Predict the 3D structure of the following.
Amino acid sequence: MCCDPRTVTDDERPDQPAPEHRRPEGVTDETVEALGKLSAALDHVEDARGHLFAFHRLMGSAESTMEEAYDHLRDAGHDDLAGAIDRDLLGANPLPGMWSFQMVELFDDGFYARAKELHQRALDQLVEGQRHVFEAEMKELRRTRGRDGHEARPADVEGDPEYD
């Protein structure tokens, strides 16, 4: 694979984290742990956004299916029920003044944008913008060097033409 030990830099040595996943000099354990928590919090925000987007998609499907129910009830002669669906549900706001796309937009432009910006700001200020330093260090503590499936990075996997 690589490397003549006399000519290779530390960044090119196999079986160690890539430079972008190594703790910058002078960064404390407490800072790395704090950034790990902040990243985990952002992961939860990302999950919440995914659920909000799923809600948006489900509400769109519900509207379409409700319209089909309206048509079937009307065709079956149940005009009172069809009228109630048309009047009270079709086109109605699930929350006051908002369809689900507006909820997604408000979340994206508000809390979500602020959370992402503050996360990036913390990375930039504290670890030179490097991502996943906490996770990379956790991986190093838990993996077994030299064992298949425990490689430090994709470039260390032998037999994959993309990396050989």
User: Anything to note?
Assistant: The longest helix spans residues 29-75. The chain has two domains: 47-128, 132-164.
